Amino acid sequence: MNQSLILILAFSVLFPATHILMSHGRLRTGLVRALGGEWRFRGVYTLVSFVTFFPLVFIWWENRGLGPELWDLPFRIERAIALPLMLLAVVLFVMMLATPSPASMRPGATVARGILSVTRHPMNMAFACFGLAHVVTNGFLGDVFFFGQFAVLGLLGAFHQDARLARDRGEQFREFMASTSVLPFVAILQGRNRFAADRRTLTMLLIAIAVFVALVIFHQKLFGVAVL
To answer: Bigger pLDDT: 108 or 27?
Structure first.
């Protein structure tokens, strides 16, 4: 097996694995104690993330399309799946800036408003949608692992955060969980919530759509692949 492909596969497993394991219950508590405090732990956590992610990006960028091709969907089917996923990814990411999640590094209010009424983990779901969209359109093994890690980390990370925050923050966060969902729109479809938008939310939605359109137009110039 090609050495670059081995590195892509290894780092694609290491990044989400270390990201989740280091923040897991007893291990996280032990690391915080051993390192001498929360901020030192966050520093090491960030360093490990950099060390496992950025080498991966550089190696993958120079070796795109590496390994056996696992699938090659017809162009229209690819785009029919990938474009809505990417639109949702951009909307979630941009609107998260207006309504930060209580699960983020700088927690927002534990209130199901704005994008939090769609999903309580907008950043995680943005990464998951981004990863899935690109897995569909890039069927080579190296690409599947590279983009797949975003989907794995987004989904597993969200449920992992829920378990930790429900334990650490108690009843208030559990009530927030009861009225929201991890997967976008599930709580709304189940009647546990409704989309609560204000002027700021609608403004961010329009900005997100503009960003998505710009990405579609300039994708080939930026990344070498035409979207349409």
So the answer is: 27
The token pair that represents 163 in the structure block: 């378990």
SS3 68: coil
How far is residue 177 from each of residues 111, 127, 187, measured CA to CA in Å? 10, 20, 10
Q: How far apart are CA 179 and CA 78, in angstroms?
A: 34
Model confidence at 59, pLDDT cuts 50, 70, 90, reads: very high
HEC profile for 70-124? CCCCCHHHHHHHHHHHHHHHHHHHHHHCCCCCCCCCCCCCCCCCHHHHCCCCHHH
pLDDT of residue 105: 66
Could you give the C-alpha distances from 4 to 22, 97, 151, 181, in angstroms and in order?
26, 36, 22, 38
The DSSP letter of residue 140 is B
Q: Over the stretch 24-44, which tens digit does the pLDDT of each residue have?
A: 777 888 888 888 888 888 898
Break the chain into its structural domains and give their ranges: 1-63, 68-223
Beta-carbon contacts of residue 143 (< 8 Å; ≥ 6 apart): 60, 64, 65, 66, 67, 134, 135
